[in-house]
Amino acid sequence: MSTDLTVLLVVAAVLAAATLAVAVALLVRLVRTRRALRRAGLPVERQWVFWAAIAYLVLPADLVPDPVYLDDIGVLLLALRSMRSASDGPSAPRG
């Protein structure tokens, strides 16, 4: 195998591992946010967002192939943002 191909494969593996680590970190943060909202007594109005994000992460059908977790990261970030905005409630100031 050529040196260039070896370097390319190593870089691709490192990038795939880094994006997977970010996706897992966001998943953990999403689960912790959901638990914190439940413990605080706030109704989680958008529970379907949480479960849809989890399902999208673990199901094999993705918009982008799984070695690149950018779509999974995007879905997890949107779910986290949606759950945070639901906890703010309608009376919270926007900005």
TrEMBL record:
Pfam families found in the cross-reference section: DUF1232 (PF06803)
Keyword field contains Kinase: no
Keywords, in A-Z order: Membrane, Transmembrane, Transmembrane helix
Main location (coarse class): membrane
Location(s) in or outside the cell: Endomembrane system
Transmembrane segments: 6-28, 48-65
GO cellular component: endomembrane system
Domain DUF1232 positions: 48-78
Membrane topology: Multi-pass membrane protein
The organism's place on the tree of life at top rank: Bacteria
Signal peptide, first to last residue: none
Name of the protein in question: DUF1232 domain-containing protein
Organism for this UniProt entry: Streptomyces venezuelae
